[in-house]
Amino acid sequence: MKILITFLFVLICSNLYGKKGPVTNLELPRFVSLKSDDVNLRVGPSMNYPIELKYTQNNLPIEVIDEFDVWRKVKDYENNIGWLHKSLIKGERFILIVNKDQVTKNIHNRPNGKVIGIVKKNNILNLERCLMHWCLISHKDIKGWLSKESIWGVYENEVYNLRFYQPIINQYWKILDSNFVTKTLDFN
Questions:
Q1: How is residue 122 annotated by DSSP?
Q2: For residues 51 and 158, what is the distance between their CA atoms, to the nearest angstrom?
Q3: Most exposed among 18, 33, 52, 169, judged by the fewest C-beta atoms under 10 Å?
Q4: CA nearest to 42, candidates 32, 25, 28, 55
Q5: Are 130 and 159 in contact (CB under 8 A)?
């Protein structure tokens, strides 16, 4: 009976925490980004394998799906899969705008708030933090919130890098929204 309980405990814990990489012991899958604007995606985990694709954009988000020695098996936003040397990636998080239906995406001052800017498809932005459906992004002189629906580089229900005081901010936003009155103008 004790063996069965121990087995069930290990099984439940392993499912709660997800799969860990055999080399780094970090979560798999996980998002990272490219360090350089000259990165070769290889067919296998060695310099002896041919180059399948060349990336020419640093900070491009990629998803690590497996590990072997100093090599990371990755997937990009177009579902290309191959191997990169670990020296070519970094843990900093970035996102890619991948609007399928629109050319631009609105940036808001808070989730569901006022539009403060727009960003075009294929732009790469810094990922600051994420709530369940919104991410705080930044790039040069703009910082704002984007809906997760048109970005790649963060998981659908991922909550990322939240501050301990985020629930207070969420309450403040609810108060602002409840005090906001929409005015309709009628020129007839």
A1: T
A2: 32
A3: 18
A4: 55
A5: yes
Q: Which residues of 112-133 are buried (b: 16+ CB within 10 A; e: fewer)?
A: ebeeeeebeeeebbbbebbbee
Q: Which two tokens stand for residue 37?
A: 């604007």
pTM of the entire structure? Answer: 0.77
> What does the pLDDT look like over 89-115, one tens digit per residue?
999 999 999 977 778 899 999 898 899
Give residues with Cβ within 8 angstroms of 67, minimum separation 6. 21, 22, 23, 24, 28, 73
Domains of the chain, earliest start first: 18-92 (2.30.30.40), 96-175 (2.30.30.40)
Burial group, residue 146, by CB count within 10 angstroms (0-12, 13-18, 19+): buried
